[in-house]
Amino acid sequence: MKRIQFLQGVAAALLCMAASSASLAQGYPNKPIRLIVPFPAGGATDLFARTLGQKMGEKLGTTLIVDNKPGAGGAIGSDQAAKAAPDGYTLLLATTSTHSIGPAVMARLPYDTVRDFTPIGHVGDAPSIMLVPVDSPAKTVREWIDYAKKNPGKLNYASSGNGTIVQLTAELFKAKAQAGVFVTHIPYKGTALAIPDL
Questions:
Q1: Is residue 179 included in any domain, yes or no?
Q2: Residue 23 and residue 149: Cα distance in Å, rounded?
Q3: Torsion angle of alpha carbons 18, 22, 27, 33, nearest 10°?
Q4: Contact (CB, 8 A) for 82 and 110
Q5: CATH for 183
Q6: Helices (H) and strands (E) in the chain, counts
Q7: φ, ψ of residue 159 in degrees (nearest 5)
Q8: Looking at residue 39, what is its pLDDT?
Q9: Model confidence at 166: pLDDT above 60
Q10: pTM of the model
Q11: What 3-state class would DSSP assign to 17?
């Protein structure tokens, strides 16, 4: 079984190298590449995309233009990428929110994650962190849970939108924190927009 997987991997690598050579022979890229980020400027996805875009641009010998298209948990930008010409000049920085969670929790998306996209590489992972205002009485997670239980309905949490990894992580945290934690979800177009309000 491992030998078959190895041979499949070698075959895939050879196909990628052949496709890459064919593209380079045709002068790709001969114009800037658009990198759609389905979240607002200033957030973690955007900052990552700008670093990635700079490095990719250097390697490819062209400019990668980061184009933020936030909204609907990343669906607006993802839809624009899905409808772009399949010529290699529009890329999408897809996330768990846009390509795993969104299709599972949204009744209708304007794109199909399998039919409309071709994955070309895994470029990073991001941890989830919990932040509170500096003047919060809670300084640890345990203190926050205790405070939330004593103040049901008085606390809010921000996310990058309904059905995003940030919302689902918070909901899972609430469920694991035992019964009695009632915190209101406030969805934003992206975490960058939530930080000033926090």
A1: yes
A2: 58
A3: -60
A4: yes
A5: 3.40.190.10
A6: 8, 5
A7: -140, 175
A8: 92
A9: yes
A10: 0.73
A11: helix
Helix (H) or strand (E) holding 33: strand 33-37
Tokens of 90: 């529009």
The token pair that represents 147 in the structure block:
């405070």
Is 34 part of a structural domain of the chain? no
Average pLDDT estimate for 166-189: 84
Q: Report the percent of the chain where pLDDT is more than 90.
A: 47
Q: Is the bond leading into 29 cis (omega within 30 degrees of zero)?
A: yes
pLDDT in tens, 15-41: 444 445 444 556 899 999 999 999 999
Q: Please provide the distance, in angstroms rounded to a whole number, between the alpha carbons at the two ends of the chain.
A: 51
Q: In what order do the strands lie in the sheet with 90-92?
A: 64-68, 33-37, 90-92
Q: Which two tokens stand for residue 38?
A: 């389905």
Rounded to whole angstroms, the Cα distance separating 177 from 164 reads 20
Total domains in the chain come to 1
Residue 46's nearest CA partner among 36, 55, 31 is 36
Vertex 47, ends 98 and 82: CA angle to 5°? 30
Residue 159 lies in a domain: yes
Phi, psi at residue 45, to the nearest 5°?
Answer: -65, -40
Judged against a pLDDT cut of 50, whether residue 165 lies above it is answered with yes
Phi-psi region of 31 (alpha: psi -120 to 50; beta: other; left: phi over 0): beta
Span 96-136, pLDDT tens digits:
889 988 888 888 889 999 999 999 999 988 888 888 889 99
Strands, E assignment, the chain: 33-37, 64-68, 90-92, 155-159, 183-187
**Containing structural domain, residue 162:** 141-197
